[in-house]
Specification:
The chain has 12 helices and 13 strands. It has helices spanning 2-20, 27-59, 70-106, 125-131, 143-146, 150-158, 200-236, 241-273, 285-303, 324-341, 388-393, 400-410, and strands spanning 110-114, 120-123, 165-168, 179-187, 191-198, 282-284, 309-314, 318-321, 347-354, 360-366, 414-419, 425-431, 436-438. It is elongated, with a radius of gyration of 45 Å. Bound molecules: adenosine-5'-diphosphate.
Length: 441
């Protein structure tokens, strides 16, 4: 500032000196004129600098720096510093916001920000996928116009957001249902945060658990009811010895049915709750086939008057790595199914085949009724039966193929089912080469 005043006086002095040189009679007049002209020039130069500063401010390009001297130069310099500092802060907060949004984008849950009117301000990609929103087009749309599920609309309007609701996702179809848990939270001044979570598998597991409990209860209740009926009859009616023996026989049959069911349930729970069998124990396939054959022939004799034409064959001596009890249970289940569903006297072919690529296939082919294609994908579900009465009559629990599937999975094997109604069925387990080794005859 002092320098500026000093410069002004220097200007005046130069003006006064130049005024002295003017050819006037009175030197004082010349000095005064020189000083007035110097002041006018000073003001003009100042005005020019002010105009340059104004033009720079109007342009708003804070990246480039304007170079002017004097007071205006200082104003320009300070303005430039201030705007640079502000720009830096804006940049930093924009960076933080971007990082924050990227974190929300990465969330496996859907996030939608709603303004006080319930219009969408922002949503992440997961939410866009859950509700089929377009993150650009649907901004500022009212959420109620886009999510028309009656349960959600009641929840949105109800103002009680303590819990969440489960509703179908936008891409839900009858064959591939998608269930979403949706929770609203209030924040700020009347704003809402909507969180969505895909709970399809949780819901499915829940439905499966409920179905399973209902099925087990039903399976146990039937023989129990029959047995308690017989007990009551035995207690209340005077019966002959033969009648008594017949009733006791029937009761024993029902007790066996319950025993088989409980034993299959225990087998399944063991299969699910234990680590898969290692490859340390090598078992003789011939030994396993022999036990299967004995079980199959016994069952065939028990069920039908004219036994089945059961044929067992093996392509070569071989060993398999795994659990003896599990493999025997799976193989026997397949043989027992073939015996139970094939009419008397018909043929059943059980084969062990070492495949050229080192794998091995255990297959059971029968000449039974066959299975319609729509049932095949569901056969390994627990308690799923195509022929309910035939299954029950022959002592089936509806768990056999579920056990086979688990055992196959635990041994890295593939379960193949080929069947056509009226043309018999073929069930096969293909074991990986890592679990199979051929041995000298
Ligand atoms: P189940 O104890 O009822 O036999 P499974 O799980 O072993 O239960 O089999 C499921 C259903 O698959 C059976 O109820 C039956 O309807 C059908 N099934 C299984 N094996 C055969 C077969 N070899 N031939 C025809 N149907 C079969």
């Amino acid at each position: 500032m002092v320098w500026r005043v000093f410069r002004f006086f220097l200007f005046q002095l130069a003006g006064a000196l130049l005024g002295l040189l003017l050819p006037l009679n009175n030197h004082l007049h010349g000095v005064l004129l020189g000083m007035v002209l110097a002041s006018a020039l000073w003001v003009l130069l100042d005005l020019r600098r002010g105009m340059v500063l104004l033009a720079w401010l109007k342009e708003g390009n804070t990246q480039s720096r304007v170079r002017i001297s004097g007071l205006w130069g200082e104003v320009a310099d300070r303005t430039w510093r201030l705007t640079r500092a502000r720009d830096k802060k804006v940049e930093e907060s924009q960076g933080r916001l971007n990082e924050f949004l990227a974190a929300i984008q990465a969330s496996p849950n859907g996030v939608v920000l709603l303004d006080a009117q319930g219009c969408i301000e922002w949503c992440n990609e997961t939410a866009a996928d859950h509700f089929a929103f377009d993150p650009q087009r649907d901004v500022l749309q009212h959420i109620g116009n886009l999510l028309r599920d009656p349960g959600f609309l009641a929840y949105l309007g109800g103002e009680d957001y303590a819990g969440d609701i489960v509703m179908p996702g936008a891409r839900s179809t009858a064959s591939r249902p998608v269930q979403l848990a949706v929770h609203l939270h209030r924040y700020g001044e009347g704003r809402k945060l909507l969180l969505s979570r895909d709970v399809t598998s949780v819901e499915q597991a829940d439905v499966m658990r409920r179905d399973f409990v209902a099925n087990v209860s039903h399976e146990i209740r039937t023989p129990l009811t029959v047995m308690s009926g017989f007990v009551e009859t035995l207690q209340t009616l005077p019966l002959s010895n033969e009648e008594r023996a017949r009733y006791l026989d029937l009761m024993a049959q029902q007790a066996r049915r319950m025993q088989t069911l409980v034993s299959d349930l225990l087998t399944l729970s063991k299969l699910e709750g234990s680590p898969p069998p290692g490859t340390a124990e090598w078992l003789s396939v011939a030994g396993l086939l022999l036990l299967c054959e004995q079980d199959g022939r016994d069952l065939s004799r028990l069920l039908v008057d004219q036994s089945h034409d059961l044929r067992f064959s093996m392509s070569g001596p071989c060993e398999i790595a795994g659990s003896h009890s599990e493999l025997l249970s799976a193989m026997s289940n397949l043989v027992s199914n073939a015996v139970r569903y094939t009419p008397a006297g018909e043929s059943i072919e059980v084969r062990w085949q070492n495949l050229p690529d080192g794998r091995a296939e255990f297959s059971v082919k029968d000449a039974g009724p066959g299975i319609a294609p729509e049932h095949i994908p569901r056969l390994t579900e627990r308690f799923y039966r195509v022929d309910r009465s035939r299954s029950r009559e022959t002592g089936g629990t509806g768990l056999g193929l579920a056990i086979v599937k688990h055992v196959a999975q635990r041994h890295g094997a593939e379960l193949l089912i080929e069947s056509q109604p009226g043309q018999g069925s073929r069930f096969a387990m293909v074991f990986p080469a890592s679990r199979v080794r051929q041995i000298p005859a």
